[in-house]
């Protein structure tokens, strides 16, 4: 540790720390543009200049290491003059765009020019102009504003793993852009907007829509993948105008995936805003009373064992639990939340969680991916894997389709379960890597268990984790990577077949006469047998709504208070940012009212009462903003029927089109444009 004096305040910082970090430890604010805590040091903006005793000139604090006994001055006359001069240089070519710039009110350059700049500039020559660059349908560029801090270049290379941005030219001719003008091929491009300290990179969908002070800001959680990134939903009136990430070091750090960030326009398209009932083969609008009366009339006389319910991938845990209570009250055990048919053993929670934790990736030293592409299934989690791999402390291997670009080097062991067997018997060289690792991780994708032999694959992956020492009281190295924010919560809520109950395949095989679909759009509705009475409760007129006999309009995740559990088992709360459209209502309220119409008394009338029931049924729901983090104390594997063995067929991936993987993104015009551009085999250029 080194003792450093900052403006008369003595602080102790680790050896190797920078002067900027020491200043922050002393509570001193240091202006900066190029420096970012999660990126490598560039030291090229010079805004962070400070005075160091005995140094001949001001030093860039972001790149200058501390030394024991060093004395630093952050607000001397020398420092103030140096910062004013640096700001004057930065503003030489910067246009006076503040009145029309989308960064106005949230601009680091604007703020620091006010706080640290001078009263004017001495530059009288003509300002330079730079052609705007095309980076794709999500990021808008006004490159004349660029101050060449290179944050975007370093983010694309180091975090996103796509070295497609860089500087061309020198001196006054230097420009930032893609070397060949095309759309950036990353699922994390929206983060470039957040880290840009000026208005050079802004949101294309949000351009010229509003000013930040016009927005109502609501903290929530992203449910469009299973990472559960902390987000802020910005609304104006009845409309979501943008979604931004919040910092959560244990989950998403400060990053966010593009689908969750930019698909918000899907929240106002194809919405269900009134009940509908099918009469003589045609859907017609109805009142809530008519809809509930129609349901009661059609379900009358149908025995409980002929009723079924399916929960979708984006539902909140409250809604899943409420529907489960209703179905139990009707005498039905036919429940399923696994639309993909995943063979998940729910007898123990660690059989279906990402047990190491997302932050646990930072401790892993060997990683095996089975039947998953985390770049498409969980881009933020994939960036964390890349960060650990970039440090040189993590070796990665994969079993699944060949040729995947994960943004980091991964040894391909094979395409099917044979590679798993080779690891078990030690004939694969990577088996020794796993056994020799102190913190080995095995990540099993949902697609790997959504096969006819899914139960055998789950058991084999668990057995492999046990054989390589990944299951110890200090470390739980078995992990399942889910796809959406509502999947784990529904499992925790017990939305699976009860004793003697049917799963989704059994229900679609003619085992029920009436089917309640709670936001269930993840399977082909054409598989529902003709004559089955279908109730669809959801927020979008997606696949299943067209098959429904009764449609009950629910609320999207931005329109209700709800509990979601991410892939690592962390319980999080989403909050209502705006009211549902039209006559749509929160899903648990719809289920409560339906229960009254069906003569089933549910033991809750308020959200608090419902949550209390949930905690009583499963105490994990009481651990809000936390997770049960523990090692593996019982290595007993998942249940497996006798004689079951993995098949030889190759693994496939769960997400084929990242941009349109759920009902909200399928309704989004922005995501449709992304799908058109990025799924086309031919690179899309700006001129097109």
Describe the model.
25% of the residues lie in helices and 17% in strands. It folds into 4 domains: 2-90, Roll (Ubiquitin-like (UB roll)), CATH 3.10.20; 122-268, Alpha-Beta Plaits, CATH 3.30.70.20; 276-345 and 487-622, Rossmann fold (3-Layer(aba) Sandwich), CATH 3.40.50.740; 355-481, 3-Layer(aba) Sandwich (Dimethylsulfoxide Reductase, domain 2). With 688 residues, the chain is α/β, with parallel strands linked by helices. α8 runs parallel beside α17 and α11 (417-425) runs parallel beside α14 (454-467). It is globular. β21 and β22 form a beta hairpin. Residues 2-78 form the 2Fe-2S ferredoxin-type domain. One of its GO terms (molecular function) is oxidoreductase activity, acting on NAD(P)H. Residues 78-117 form the 4Fe-4S His(Cys)3-ligated-type domain.
Please give a handful of descriptors for the protein shown:
5-stranded mixed beta sheet, 7-stranded mixed beta sheet, 2Fe-2S_ferredoxin-like_sf, Alpha-Beta Plaits, 4 domains, 688 residues, 25% helix, disordered C terminus, globular, Ubiquitin-like (UB roll), alpha/beta, Rossmann fold
SSE topology:
Layout: E1 2-6, E2 9-13, H1 19-25, E3 49-52, E4 59-60, E5 71-73, H2 77-90, H3 108-116, E6 139-141, H4 151-159, E7 165-168, E8 175-178, H5 191-195, E9 201-203, E10 216-221, E11 230-236, E12 239-245, H6 258-262, E13 276-279, E14 282-285, H7 288-299, E15 307-311, H8 317-329, E16 335-336, E17 366-370, H9 374-377, H10 379-390, E18 395-399, E19 411-414, H11 417-425, H12 429-436, E20 440-445, H13 446-449, H14 454-467, E21 471-472, E22 475-476, E23 478-481, H15 487-492, H16 504-511, E24 514-518, E25 533-538, E26 550-553, E27 562-565, E28 571-574, H17 587-597, H18 607-617, H19 663-666, H20 669-678
Helix pairs in contact: 8-17, 11-14
